[in-house]
Every structure is written in C-alpha cells, then in structure tokens.
Amino acid sequence: MNSTTSLATQLRKSIDDSVNRLAAAVDKQRGSEEMRRYLDVMARFPMYSWRNACLISLQRPQASLVAGFSHWKRLGRRVRKGEKAVRIISPCPVRKAADEEEERVRMYFKAACVFDVSQTEGKGLPTAEVPEIRADTKGLLAALANVAAKRGITVRYRPMEEGTFGVSRGGEVEIATGHSTGQQSKSLVHELAHEAMHRRLIASDAYGIGRRTAELEAEAVAYVVCRHFDLDVELRASRYIALWGGEGKALAASLGRISDAARRLIEDMKGLGPCAGGAATCRTGLGTATSVPTLATGRHRTCPASS
Ligand SMILES: [Zn+2]
Hints:
By secondary structure, the protein is an alpha+beta fold. The chain has two domains: about 170 residues, no CATH class; about 55 residues, no CATH class. It contains eleven helices and eight strands. Strands 1-4-3 form a three-stranded antiparallel sheet. A three-stranded mixed sheet has the order 6-8-7. Strand 3 and strand 4 form a beta hairpin. Helix 1 crosses helix 11, helix 6 crosses helix 11 and helix 8 crosses helix 11. The longest helix has 29 residues. The protein is globular, with a radius of gyration of 22 Å. The C terminus is likely disordered. Bound molecules: zinc ion.
C-alpha cells in the first residue's frame, strides 16, 4: 500500500470512527430526562404537509411551533385574544355507503386555523438547550470560506434572529454574525454540507421532504469535519440531531453519504490551509491559511432552526 492510499484509508477510518462516536452521543442525549420530556411534547405536534408548511411560512414567516386552538389548550396554553389565525388546508374524509356491502371514503378539504407558539400564553413548554460553541478558529473559518469560493458558493455574514446560525439556499450561504468563529465554522460546514448533499431539494423548494434526514446528515458532516480539525462540537451536534428526532441507527444508515461529503470537504481544504490564525489544529497538517475570499451579498430564504 503506497502512502497516498494509506492516508486515504486512515482518513476513511477516522471519519467512520467519528460517525460512530457521534451516534453514541446522540443516543445518550435521546436517553436524557430533559430530552425525553422535550421530544415527548414535540412528537405530539402535528406534522404539516409541504403545502401547509408553505402557507404557514407565507402568513407567519417566523412561526416555529404551530398547532390548532384545542391542541394548545390540551398543552395548558391558550391563544391570546385578538391573535390572527394562520389559515391552512385540512383534509376532511367523508364516509358514504355506496351499497350495503361497500363503504366509500371521499376526501374533501376545508380551511383550518392554527396558531404559532408566540401567539399563545400559559404553561411553559419543555426546553432543551443546544449550547453555542465558544472557540476561536479564525483559520478554520477562513479555509472553509475558501472551499465555498472554490465551489462557487457565495458566503455572506449578517445578523440573524436568535436561534438561527446559518442559512443555505442553493448557491448561497449565510452565516450569523455575533458568534464565535468556532460557532461560525461549525455553521459554515453544516451549510456547505446542505449545499453539497441537499441542493436539489433546496432549489426545488421541496426542502421539507426528508428534512430530518437532511439536518442529521449536515450536522454529522459538520461534526466529522470539526472533529478532524480538533474543534469540539460533540455536545451541540448530538443535541441538535436528537432535537430533530435523529438517532444513532439513522446515522449508521447515512454513513456512506456523510463519510463521502466529509471526506470531500476535508480534501478540498488541503492546500487551502485551515490551521493558521485560529485555535483549530488540524490532525493531518494541511498547510497554512491563505486569504479570506471576498464575501459577496445575496438574498436568502429563511431556513428555520439552522445550525
Ligand atoms: Zn440545516
């Protein structure tokens, strides 16, 4: 085996080890009391179709947790007086007896009213904290920006609403300002992973399809790449994936895709240099950081709960 093959094998093994380690961390998070309480309540919220998700997004772009009047009541919360409902389309099956032996079901649709959590008050909902990364990794961030430029992806930095750290919209990535370069590095890998793996979904606006898997894959790639450069994001990544309903076996199912995307990112950074100028020390020594590419501007579409 020559040295190039040996390095490639080592990298693959290291990536596989990282994914296995992350899978164990995600399952540990899912087993915690705090996460169980949170996931239990979240699991009871309705999953909306892509069409309804669009209707909600159009009428209330900042909506994060949406349910009907009676659902909020069951959770011990009430809709505040004067709040304007978000209108969605609700299926309404009607059973009709065609003859004595056969019963037919006809599907009708009716308008239904839902409300965002911000329009309600009452009993608190369980929360699960996803800690922010506090580390200085200027060199890593610069190298990732170089990779984005090399791939023809525009990166822009701007302030974002609380809880949103990055946005990917196919050919453009936005990263939230006001956070450590460690957090921004992790977010940039996450968004670059979306660009590489889910661009077709983003471009076709069908991002809602398989969103859980898309988030799991992007965050796992971020974890693997950050770990490769000794930036510890394990707690954040494992909690983020658990919050999206991901689990260890789902990571194993996506191992090939995660591994390929992470390896390509790490290899693209060779020669561009992630190591200088920040706290991140790369494990394989990829050289010295070069200049940060010019950051162009561009419009973005909000990608909720982006990491
Ligand atoms: Zn994402």
